[in-house]
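Encode chain A's predicted structure.
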Amino acid sequence: MLTISSEASVGQLVREVPARAKVFEQFGIDFCCGGKLPVADACRTRRVDLKTVLDELQKCDASPVASGELVDADAMTLTDLADHIEQTHHAYLRDELPRLDRMTEKVARVHGQHEPRLLQVRDAFIALQAELEPHMRKEDTVLFPLIRQLEAATGLPEFHCGSLSNPIRQMEHEHDQAGDALAIIRQATDDFAPPEWACNTYRAMLDGLERLEFDMHQHVHKENNVLFPKAMQLEASRA
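Encoded structure for chain A:
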């Protein structure tokens, strides 16, 4: 991980690692039109602590989503895996979806006339967000508590849904719909490749969408291929 210079311009830092835009947004530092300022000057202008900003930038560069760090989901208990999904992937989505909502709206509004496919990106993102927010609530409040209950029990609990396979089937269907929206976004952005004329906000949006896709792939893999099959297998063994 490279040390970030306080003399580097805000715009260049975001251009190198677009995910850094999130840090500058947090401190109200303009990384787009005002991106020519060195980060030290930008911090003085906004009256924020330079060291704090540099530390946050380093944390951003080392974050699991940025580094692609993976965990061994198969080695976890069902309870631990459900906790991990909530604390890692659901927490990430609750933080990132509102940010990407703002960015896709702004980029589509400013650049949509020049690049009409950005309107497709916006529509697909709206559909994705509308799918994921209630989806996570159902997992957090219904399905995951049932899975934890099953693992903690010595016999087979009586579930109000009849069998875990019923809510699991619905969750998998919603995963497919989210995957369709992500595929539209990837296609409409030429695999998240910014055009030469793209501003830093545009580039940060594409980077955020690509990271969202990566996180969703890991998220859905842990559920569809590990948590759900193991939960149904345990339920069948208790029957």
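The first helix runs from residue 10 to 16.
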